[in-house]
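SAMPLE LOG
Freezer: B-3
Tube label: C17
Construct: single chain, 401 aa
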Amino acid sequence: MSETAAEPRLTPLTAPADGVPPVLTLPHQLRGAVADFAAGTGPIAIDAERASGYRYGQHNYLVQMRRAGAGTVLLDPIALPDLHSFTDAAGDAEWVFHAATQDLWPLREQGIEPRRIFDTELAARLLGMPRVGLAAVVADLLGLSLAKEHSAADWSTRPLPDSWLVYAALDVEVLIELRDELAKRLAAAGKLEWAYQEFAHELAAPPHEQRPEPWRRTSRITDVKGRRALGVARELWEARDSIARRQDVAAGRILPDRAIVAAAIKQPRTVPDLLRIREFTTKAARTRAPLWLEVIGRALALPEDALPSSRGPASDAPPPPRTWAERAPHAAERWESVRPAVIARAEELNLPVENLLQPDTLRRLCWDESIGADLVPEFLAARGARPWQIEQAGPIIAKNL
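STRUCTURE (predicted):
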């Protein structure tokens, strides 16, 4: 029988070293915490918990921070919605996140505006780590086992259970130690400057704009054929979104995506017909059955010119590369030459190809036949590529064009 290498033994991280602090809800508690953080030293570890799948939108329901000399603080941003005083207390200190793009804008709603950041998830990607979730990176680099059983919990719950508070405090317990280890490895790999360029880019990025016709992101919407059926899906999605926003409930709890798609395909004319659709057997869907039927009827009565296009909103993006051979043979040749070379370069650098260059940028460059080798750096910079990406990918692209 062959022997396999034993998995490294991990040390469980079950409780914060200083205990679990209380959740702060009062202004005088906030002032005290701000004073402690102003007197602290070094980077500030920060994380936030939301109620995705339970509440409408992406608002924070708990904010946790840690700094040397100040310890860990847990804040209720519902009771204390204005946290801008921490921005002043931090000064020019670095804020340490894991997956900063998820947390930066919800935290800005509370007035937290970091001047510098370090993103441990992005750092792990640049190092080519196969797993980049917080628990996985902590296990691989620090040898600690970090439980993640409450990551999908309803953090709008009040009061928050003690076990959830332990989990929240542990999320920032070793984040600064993790940051230091990642920075050391990035420096050894010659990637630390790359990382800081990426962090600056994350910090300066605008909020994600809502896509036109957001209803088209309904799961399995491609199963819906024809403009009339798409009109039903759109009207149901918009009615659901209005209810969800008004009641502050996740839209899927009002009506699942699969129910919208099923109703758009079957287009029932009566409440009994609607309730015979398997996807409308949930209590929430059945309770509003007359409303859903009214919305479906309204969609079925729309004039043709009010129905959505079967193609979706206009876009300046190139068509899928699989169609290029017939539509634009020269662009197809560029794509077939450049893309494998960029993938190979990413493998040489031991990082995901999308971190070397965004796929959309590469597609646009290959599609636009007016972009010659001499214009590659300018094109990449205009699309938001960072200097290190232009330096590493630009010559490869230019050579293979």
